[in-house]
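Protein modeling request. Please complete all fields; requests missing the sequence field cannot be processed.
Requester role: graduate student
Desired output: 3D structure, token encoding
Chains: 1
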Amino acid sequence: MGFKRILPTIISLGVDEHYAGKNLYVLSITNLTTHKPITFLPSDRVFLFKQFLVNVPDKVKENIKEVYLDMSEGLINAVKEDLPKAKS
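Delivered output (88 residues):
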């Protein structure tokens, strides 16, 4: 998922839901510090986002200082659980 290219910097993450048609939403996850996409998740399901966060290496998690996301309570809670030092 491109974690090696974002290791050395302070990171602000952007998490956005996008309508993909026929009642399907996807999530984009972007490094807002470098303005580069990290990945797209195939749905907006919270468990997929949590799975993504669990797979982020600890060295990268330490550098994530802010997470900007929509008002989805499930996504906000996932950030609080897996990235407790990041502002959301």
